[in-house]
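Researcher:
Attend to token order:
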Amino acid sequence: VEAAWRRPVDEADVDAVFSTWEAAMEQGADAHEALRFAMLRALLSPRFLFRVEVPTHPDAWEREPLSAHELAVRLSYFLWSSQPDDALREVADDGSLLQDEVLEAQVRRMLDDPRADALIDGFGAQWLGLPVLDAMAPDPATFPDFDEALRAAMRAEVEDLAERVLLGDASMMEVLTADERWVEPRLAQHYGLGLTEGARVSVPGRSGAGVLTMAGWLAATSNPTRTSPVRRGAWVTSNLLCEKPPPPPDGVETELDESGGGGSVVEQLAAHRADPVCASCHDQIDPVGLALERFDGIGAARETYEDGTEIPAGGSLAGVGAFDDVAGLTGILAHQTRAERCFVQKSFTYALGRGTTAEDWPFLADIESRFAAGEHRFEELAVAIALSEPFRTHRGGE
């Protein structure tokens, strides 16, 4: 019961489960069947089904510290997406987990454990859009080269990046600037490489641009029959800069005209930016999306559109400056304070299971400082989050 409920149990807890066993025996069940009913009683309890954190005063606005066991559970689900192990329960049992140095040591130990791979399938996958990659369905007539083997190889490439920035020694900024990537033979074929086995390599035309030149991400941010510069640009703005664009105003056409009579993609997006109602968002979104137009709807490199029109490689981002290619763009973005801050916010949100609030900002500033001092490594960020007051406290309504 104690392991299932992730906290110490008292005699009343044990008696409640044992009474189910006794009742089943009295009704004629054999010992094994009665034990099954007792186990069901324990596993159907809210203590097992939910992460229960009950403040002393559920209606109070003031924050109060988590108990050592509540903190252990919050930490284990942050880093492992699972319950505490024996080592973590031990420091919760004696209360030492509430000490800064013990809590920090546990974070580092847990990140070095194979169970931390859950961060890749949890945080990394959600952040970098892998569920969308898994569900996307490129039009087979438009993209006949796409198959399930390619999808799997695309996923492996993004997962490798997530592993390096979350569990390795790489800076999290390599989400934007990574040079090498994991390329399996099917993806190598897609990239025009001659690899016969998986390897971590630098791919010409994609070096130094991280996830934004990975075929899986490019495909996941496209439409079934074509690329979507607006969708790609909006994804970067929302997920790497944490500046989610507002929805388009009523009556504004959001789809590009593919008939050939509406002008080129560049011209149509320029028309959007010429409209003052649209410009505030599209000045940030469009240059990013257009810089990625040299990759088609499944991430294959190209230099021209189907009509032979050359696709510009560079551009200019409002308030930031000009860039020559995608690597130049990602290099600029990686040095933006807002990117660093966004990485902190995304990690904090995953750790606490809720969005950030104005009340969090002073704590986020301290976390960001430690993150920067730690060369933008996730381990240092995880330690800073775990040691922060919002992570170690709760109050009514949360």
In short: The CA atoms of residues 314 and 321 lie 11 Å apart. The first helix runs from residue 2 to 5. DSSP finds 21 helices and six strands in the chain.
